[in-house]
Amino acid sequence: TENAPIRITQPTIKIARFLADLKASSTWGLQICSETQLGSGSVYSVLDRFESYGWVESFWEEDNNRRGARRRLYKVTSVGKKSLKQLVAEKESSTILIQSRAKVQA
Questions:
Q1: CA distance 15 to 38
Q2: What is the spatial distance between Cα 40 and Cα 55, in angstroms, rounded to a whole number?
Q3: pTM value?
Q4: Do the beta carbons of residue 75 and residue 26 sit within 8 Å?
């Protein structure tokens, strides 16, 4: 799937932006839902796609002291960090271009 086109939706960009700016070493799906205001169906399908691209790796939390169910954690790979930043930058520059063209035509 290396040459397969990347589906770019609004949720994809929101999640890419969140992960590209992530300061922690890892995060979990419901934290991404909360921070991006997206539903779990959108978040987990995008995370699955990002994992298939090699942009994130997932693993089960090993914190035995935390109460509740184990969380699936997601870590951005070095390739993912570059790719996510590039995706966000390209989307933002195309949005700026579209907005500036709209202003010129108005």
A1: 9
A2: 19
A3: 0.80
A4: yes
